[in-house]
């Protein structure tokens, strides 16, 4: 995301049902600074261990637009991903957890040098923690982002394995898992130990959407 960097807003209206009263929620822009860590697996390396691409303490920022209890932003991709759709995303405040939880959504794009002739279908989950305060750089404490990358191709499509030797067929998703990213966002200096590789074909999946933090980071 000058938004969280991923490898590879919208005004809302509140309708009050008392007579014909319409209250407009004024959008407010917010920039949040933080440190980012990333752990990645791509299916050009063996399944079961993180790929070599990982880092901590990347200083970056994200631009949000706040409307009521929603934070709107969009994903940026590096390198550039062609024919991308669905970059916009929204976090909604959840009183139970006091987190801003990312809503259901996904991004599709093409990038032939990596993904061959296939479309990369991305699923994102995660949350942001500003405590009980209004979102800002000063109130930001922690956040996490999960990114799954799938090819929707038949199980017997030999081209998938040509593109990604270690692609994993996911029976529940009906698609090929070709990548996974874990992003950790913190106000303070990061000092993480490398986390265990997750069970991406079992419990750590993009469904159901309510599992916004499957690794409990």
Short descriptors:
217 residues, mainly beta, 8-stranded antiparallel barrel, disordered N terminus
How would you classify the helix and strand content by structural class? Answer: mainly beta
The major β-sheet equals:
8 strands, antiparallel, barrel
Question: What is the number of helical segments per DSSP (H or I, 4+ residues)?
Answer: 2
What is the overall pLDDT average?
A: 84
**C-alpha Rg, in Å?**
18 Å
SSE order? EEEEEEEEEEEHEEHEE
What is the molecular shape? globular
Beta fraction: over 45%
> How do the strands line up in the largest sheet?
4-5-6-9-10-12-13-15
Which percent range fits the helix content?
under 10%
- Separation of the first and last Cα atoms: 18 Å
Number of domains: 1
Low-confidence stretches: 1-24
Give me the count of strands: 15
SSE topology:
Layout: E1 5-6, E2 13-16, E3 21-24, E4 28-42, E5 54-67, E6 70-74, E7 76-77, E8 82-85, E9 88-94, E10 99-102, E11 106-110, H1 112-115, E12 120-129, E13 142-151, H2 158-163, E14 168-170, E15 175-186
Parallel strand pairs: 1-7
Antiparallel strand pairs: 2-3, 4-5, 4-15, 5-6, 6-9, 8-11, 9-10, 10-12, 11-12, 12-13, 13-15, 14-15
């Amino acid at each position: 995301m000058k938004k969280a960097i991923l490898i590879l807003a919208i005004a809302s209206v509140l309708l009050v049902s008392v007579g014909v009263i319409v209250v407009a929620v004024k959008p407010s822009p917010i920039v949040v600074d933080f440190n980012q860590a990333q752990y990645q697996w791509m299916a050009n390396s063996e399944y079961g261990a993180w790929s070599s691409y990982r880092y901590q303490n990347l200083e970056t920022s994200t631009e949000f637009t706040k409307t009521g209890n929603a934070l709107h932003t969009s994903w940026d991709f590096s390198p550039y991903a062609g024919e991308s759709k669905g970059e916009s995303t929204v976090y909604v405040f959840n009183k139970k957890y006091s987190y801003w939880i990312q809503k259901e959504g996904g991004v599709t794009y093409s990038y032939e040098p990596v993904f061959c002739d296939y479309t990369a279908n991305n699923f994102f989950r995660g949350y942001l923690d500003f405590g009980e305060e209004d979102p800002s750089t000063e109130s930001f404490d922690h956040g996490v982002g999960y990114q799954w990358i799938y090819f929707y191709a038949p199980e017997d499509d030999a081209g998938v394995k040509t593109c990604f030797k270690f692609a994993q067929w996911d029976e529940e998703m009906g698609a090929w898992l070709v990548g996974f990213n874990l992003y950790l966002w913190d106000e303070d200096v990061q000092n993480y130990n490398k986390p265990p590789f997750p069970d991406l074909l079992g419990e750590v999946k993009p469904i159901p959407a309510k599992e916004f933090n499957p690794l409990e980071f």
